[in-house]
Amino acid sequence: MKRAVVIGLGIFGYNIARTLFENGFEVVAIDKNKDIIQKMRDHCTKAILADGTDQEIMDEIGVGEDDIAIVSFGEDLAAATLITLHLKQMKVKNIIVKAPNEDHKMILEKVGATDVIIPEKDAGKKLAKSLISPNVMDYIPLSADYMIFEMAPPNSFLGKTLAELQLRNRFSIEVIAVRDVLSESVHMVPQADFVIKDGEVLVVIGKEADINKIK
Question: Whole-model pTM?
């Protein structure tokens, strides 16, 4: 079983810890706020009342190199930097840190963070994309040009085969999977005779500008 150590239980840390626990992870949650720890007890494997910046505490917990460490200290760059440095010294391979801006992100990456998340920036981008292209539900950037998108098919797609839609010729995009929303089943690399139905989500690869052409 994978283990995640979540340090700092603000809104971001609390929701990550709870979601990971509900999806089968062993979760150790750490915060110095007694009320938050009390609230967290039923939603993690172990809730610890402690200061996450205390290296002795981290040694006692036994954070290992194969653990996933998630650090969320809000605007407190000093605390986030200190615990990131400690985790790096403990040879933790996967250190994910929340940062408020790009300047903090740069500092955290320099001291050992493997991934730095700026939730407000990411949420803003997703909201903007959803307004620009209402069909787009989620996306994963692959390069400066190409992305993988999850999109709800427009009504004009329903009941038609991929061959009839000719998405590659018309929009320069490729459908790599179709997910059924109700059953969560996934049909990988659908053939040309696959019929698009209501309640399905298309997983496509292409350029953002080409995706935006689909309304």
Answer: 0.63
Radius of gyration of the chain (CA): 21
Q: What's the burial of 69, exposed, middle or buried (CB within 10 Å: 0-12/13-18/19+)? A: buried
Torsion of CA 151, 157, 160, 165, to 10 degrees: -90
Tokens of 40: 């967290």
The three-class DSSP label of residue 125 is helix
pLDDT at residue 134 above 80?
no
For domain 3-117, say whether CATH 3.40.50.720 is its number.
yes
Judge whether 96 and 114 are in contact, CB under 8 Å: yes
**DSSP labels, 137-153:** EEEEE-SSSEEEEEEPP
What CATH number does the domain located at 123-211 have? 3.30.70.1450
Q: Which residues of 136-158 are buried (b: 16+ CB within 10 A; e: fewer)?
A: bbebeeeeeeebebbbbbeeebe
Distances (CA, A) of 52 to 7, 64, 81, 91: 6, 15, 11, 17
Q: What stretch(es) of the chain map to CATH 3.30.70.1450?
A: 123-211
* Beta-carbon count within 10 A of 120 CB: 11
Mean pLDDT, residues 171-183: 87
Does residue 150 surpass a pLDDT of 60? Answer: yes
